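Case 426 in the screening queue. Each case pairs one protein sequence with one candidate compound; here the compound is glutamic acid. For every case the pipeline is the same: read the inputs, emit a complex structure as C-alpha cells, and attach any notable structural observations.

Predict complex for case 426.
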Amino acid sequence: MTATITRPHEAAADLTALEEARAQLREAIDHLGLSEGKYQMLANARREVTVSVPLRRDDGELEVLIGHRVQHNFSRGPAKGGLRYDPHVDLDEVRALAMWMTWKCALIDVPYGGAKGGVRIDPRRYSQTELERVTRRYTSELMPILGPDKDIPAPDMGTDEQTMAWIMDTYSVAVGHTVPGVVTGKPISLGGSLGRRESTSCGVVHIALAAMESRGLRPSTSTAAVQGFGKVGRGAARFLYDAGVKVIAVSDQYGAVHNPGGIDLPRLEAFTERTGSFVDFDGADPLERDALLELDVDVLVPAALEGVLTSANAPRVRARVIVEGANGPTSSGADRIFADRDILVVPDILANAGGVIVSYFEWVQGNQAYWWTAREVEERLRSRMVGAWESVTAYAAENELSLRSAATVMAVERVALAHRQRGLYP
Ligand code: GLU
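Case 426 output:
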C-alpha cells in the first residue's frame, strides 16, 4: 500500500514548526519580561549535529541518508528526546521538536534539557537489517555527544524499542561496557520500564479526562475522535474507550473509520493486528482521512503529525476539547480561532508528557538498578500528569493565559532560572 502524505502546513499559509516554536518562546519571554539576549539564547539550539549515514542496501547498492541530532538545551540536565525516522525530517523541524522537549521536561520538572533526532528515511521501505545498519551507523556518528549524562534518545515516530536496543548496543560496544541509561524506551529485558510503551497514551488520557471534567463533560456521555493509530493514538483510543468514552472515529496515514454508535476498539485492534490496516473492518464505515478532524465530537486527539490543525480547517473543527497527543499539531492561527470559539486546547508539552515522564522513571530505575512494579509506574505517572494539569490550569487562570501560553511561560521561566543561577561562562 502506498500513500502520498501531504503535510497541511505545506498547503496552508500557516507557520512552519520552527516559526511556531519561536513565536511561542517570544510570547513567553515578553510575558516574563526577559531580555532579547535571553530570547536569542533559547531560540537557538546549544548544539546541532548533521551526519551522513551511508547505508549498504540488502541488494548491495549504497545509499546515503541524512541524520540530525539537535540538543536544544542542557541547563537543567542531560538533553532528552526522541529519535524520528520519517521521510519529511528536516533540520528546522528537528530544531522545533528539540525546543519543545526542553519546555516539556521543564514543565513536568524532570532534570533534563531537550533534544531531538531525526533520519530522513521512510522506515516502511527498508528491511529490519537495513534499519539496524542505519541505526548503528547514525549512533556511531553521534558517539561523542550521546551518553546517559549527555543526551538520551528515546523512541519517536518511526522508531521503537528495537531501535533503542541497537543504539544501546552500539554505544555500549564502543565504550566497552553495557550502558543501559544511554537510551530510554528500551525492551524490558534490557532494562526498560514497565509501562513505558503505553505511557504517552496513558498520560494523554489522564489529561483528556481532566480537561473533559473541567468542561463538565462526563466520560460515559462523551464522544472522541483520534487521529493516528501509532504509538500514541492507538493507546489513547483504547484508554478513552476503557474509560467509557465513545470513540467514534480513528485514522492512520492511509484513511479513517467512523461509527457514530462507537467503535469496538478491542475488535479494531485485533483486526489491524491481523491485516495491518483498517480496510474492510466491518465495525465502522470508511471516512476520508482528514474529515476526522472536523467531526462533531467532545474530544479530539490529534496524535499523528505536527501542523494538522491550521487556520484553514480550524473554523470547521467541532470538538469541544482538543488534547494534543502529537507534538505541534495546532498552528498559532488555529489556536486563535479555537480561543475565539471557546474550544479548549491542551498543549502537547503538557498532554503528551507521559512518555518522557516514564522515560525518566526508566533512567532512574536503571541508575539505581532497582525496578518498580507496573502499579508503581502507573501511579507515579498519574500523579505527575494530574499535578502538571493542576498547576498549568491554575497558572493560566491566574494570569489569564491560554493553557499553551501558561505551560510555555512556566517552562521558560524554569529554564531561564537555571541559566541565571548557573551564570554565563566565561
Ligand atoms: N518522543 C517522545 C516525546 O516527544 C518521548 C521522548 C523521551 O521519552 O525522551 O515526548
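Case 426 observations:
- Residues 374-399 form the longest helix (26 residues).
- Residues 1-6, 8-12 have pLDDT under 50 and may be disordered.
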